[in-house]
Design brief:
Shape: elongated
Largest sheet: 5 strands, mixed, barrel
Number of strands: 9
């Protein structure tokens, strides 16, 4: 007997793939099941089922089931909670939101639940919807995402001598080691892939993992902090994944065109 178990959860659409003339394969990040891939039968042709709820970023209440021998879930129903209409009206908002969901997709394993990651994505998509497309928002999402997924860079001490962060010391960040080297240790280790980083930038990134989201706008990014945090996080994420995400590349190219 091929029985099925039905489940309900909330999920944000990460991506879709045409499966047949009428069906879609949809990947969600869900509150209770983590990344979930499901078949939406008839989604490409039906004018009644799944209308406007399977677009990227859309957050919905999902009802799905899985037959015992099936690897993919089957989407039974989908009711929109937030479709983020303002994101879709703006290129800047769309590109930033696309990078966020791409980052979550590439770091997440199938059906490994992490409610903190779901809340992070939902909260930051809501901030983009409200009009925030700042460098601060981008970098704080990245650093929080790395912390939740277990890849947080070590920014509180030198990884070699273990001395705590000191405002009188100078530092570099080692991409390969994933943390700080004080300048004397860095010279001694001759480690490849190191970036100079100011204590001010380090403190800002530390604050980015802790500050309440409604207070983030109080944090000012200097030009130096913006440059250093971009280099550090972009290269570190690329090192972890072994590649540069296309969504990040497009976002960066558009930003460069506007400078």
């Amino acid at each position: 007997m091929n029985t099925k178990a039905t489940h309900r959860t909330e999920g944000i659409v990460l991506k879709t793939l045409n499966y047949s003339d009428s069906d879609l394969i949809v990947t969600f990040y869900t509150r209770d099941f983590g990344k979930l891939t499901a078949i939406a039968k008839g989604a490409r042709k039906s004018k009644k089922r799944f209308v406007n709820v399977l677009e990227p970023f859309c957050c919905s209440s999902l009802l799905f089931f899985r037959k015992q021998r099936d690897q993919l879930a089957w989407l039974e129903s989908c009711q929109c909670i937030n479709e983020y209409p303002e994101i879709r009206k703006s290129l800047d908002r769309t590109l930033l939101a696309s990078y966020f969901i791409d980052l979550v997709d590439h770091f997440s394993l199938e059906e490994k639940a992490e409610i903190k990651l779901f809340k992070l994505l939902y909260t930051f998509l809501s901030l983009i919807e409200e009009g925030d497309t700042s460098e601060r928002l981008l970098r704080f999402f990245e650093i929080r995402h790395l912390k939740i997924t277990g890849y947080a860079p070590a920014l509180d001490r030198c990884l070699i001598c273990n001395a705590p962060l000191n405002s009188q010391q100078r530092y570099v960040f080692s991409i390969t080691h994933g943390g700080l080297h004080c300048l004397s240790c860095s010279s001694a280790s001759a480690a490849p892939g190191v970036l100079p980083i100011s204590v001010g930038t380090i403190r800002t990134l530390q604050l980015g993992t802790e500050i309440e989201t409604d207070k983030m706008k109080r944090i000012l990014f200097s030009g130096q902090t913006a440059r250093e945090s971009k280099s550090l996080l972009t290269l570190f994420i690329g090192h972890i994944l072994g590649k540069e995400l296309k969504s990040m590349k497009v976002l960066d190219e558009v930003q460069r065109m506007r400078i």
